[in-house]
Design goal:
By secondary structure, the protein is α/β, with parallel strands linked by helices. The protein contains 9 helices and 10 strands.
Length: 243
């Protein structure tokens, strides 16, 4: 299990995370939702030890470090690959450094996304680069797969098909945490929703529980964020008054 206890992170006077407690068991697919600046990326980077933080993050009871970091993978639209290398060169690099690398999964996902194997990554489009990030994260052989807005630049049909593929290829020992603004699109894909606001978790619910209550994920998020349905009308009225 991946556990966060009282995790805090500040950037100067800005508190990005304010004492976050969270547990992610294997086998779960979790949607991480929040407004821009809510702390989603900081939370993931804290798990990966890419930023310094206060509090405690453990993986199966041990602090995350060199001896177990390979159990966590990360897909981000910031791109973490080597741009001058080909996809096949990345495959060879990962296979050499990660003993549990999924060669068959890598090949299948490359075929699914129709990505070229022998072209340098710098020649890929933005959407293709993001797809390749996801392929590497899923093929690494990690138990916990973190994805931060991985589908930028991809059309809706590609995304829909990918969700179905992902559900089919994940094992019961793998967990996914997916940060995205595409709430309605992933509502049938995730099993749990975690909501962040101003560095604080304001919601944590199983989607099965929402189904039993007859509530949609989008409405749950809107309620948690105190969404004002009249804000658009008020803004437009204000513009008309100016005119």
């Amino acid at each position: 299990m991946l556990e966060l206890k009282n995790v805090k992170k500040s950037y100067g006077a800005k508190e990005a995370l304010k004492g976050v407690d969270l547990a992610l068991p294997r086998g779960e697919i979790v949607g991480l939702f929040g407004e821009n600046g809510a702390g989603k990326t900081t939370l993931m980077k804290s798990i990966l030890r890419l930023v310094r933080f206060e509090g405690k993050i453990t993986l199966d009871g041990e602090s995350v470090g060199r001896k177990n970091i390979e159990k966590i993978s990360f897909a981000t639209s910031e791109h973490s690959f080597f741009p001058d290398l080909t996809a096949n060169a990345h495959r060879d690099f990962y296979a050499e450094h990660f003993p549990t690398f999924h060669e068959k999964r890598f090949r299948s996902l490359m075929e699914f996304f129709a990505l070229p194997s022998n072209k340098a990554l710098k020649t890929f489009s933005t959407g293709q680069k993001n797809q390749f990030e996801v392929i590497l994260a899923l093929s690494q052989g990690a138990d916990y797969i973190l994805m931060d807005e991985p589908f930028a630049g991809n059309d809706v049909f590609n995304r829909e098909d990918f969700y179905k593929v992902l559900l089919g290829l994940l094992s019961e020992n793998e967990a996914v945490m997916l940060s995205t603004h595409l709430i309605e699109e992933v509502s049938d894909f995730i099993g749990r929703a975690v909501l962040l606001r101003d560095g604080v978790i304001i919601g944590d619910v199983q989607t099965e529980e929402l189904d039993e209550r007859g509530e949609t994920l989008l409405n749950y998020v809107k309620t948690a964020y105190h969404y004002r349905a009249d804000r658009v009308a008020k803004a437009l009225d204000g513009m008309e008054d100016e005119a």
